[in-house]
Amino acid sequence: xxxxxxxxxxxxxxxxxxxxxxxxxxxxxxxxxxxxxxxxxxxxxxxxxxxxxxxxxxxxxxxxxxxxxxxxxxxxxxxxxxxxxxxxxxxxxxxxxxxxxxxxxxxxxxxxxxxxxxxxxxxxxxxxxxxxxxxxxxxxxxxxxxxxxxxxxxxxxxxxxxxxxxxxxxxx
Length: 172
Hints:
The chain is an alpha+beta fold and 172 residues long. Helix content is 25%, strand content 34%. The strands form four sheets. Strands 1, 2, 3, 6 and 7 form a five-stranded antiparallel beta sheet that branches. Strands 5-4-8 form a three-stranded antiparallel beta sheet, with no helix packed on it. It has a three-stranded mixed beta sheet with strand order 10-9-13. A hairpin with a 3-residue loop joins strand 6 and strand 7 (67-70). The longest helix has 10 residues, at 127-136.
């Protein structure tokens, strides 16, 4: 997809591929325009490529009749790719499986989970399963609207900092 008309300072896309933005996005994800919602946006993320890495540029809402308001930077001429989510519980398990050099699990993980992931988890009825995973791995934290990674605002991410118990004697 190509952003063909945008108002960057408002993070607003008016046209994609020369068509009204909401209509074109709805056509690509195969839903009627009136079915577009934060959940549909979360399950059908828009990606932008930076080098060899794709970052989510999440859509917040429909603006007016056919505009799309984004949660991160957007501009005319930007090339976008429609993404598809993976099995969110499996990827959560993979990401939370972290140990120290001795194979010990962290004492706790401070987690920052994008709210759009929560929408997807709730829509799929996986809230209890996700909560179990967070509890098992001793994750504490809160929801965000994305993170900064390598100077780029990205959405639909889980970022965590693992804290391990100190080993051996403390330095003098």
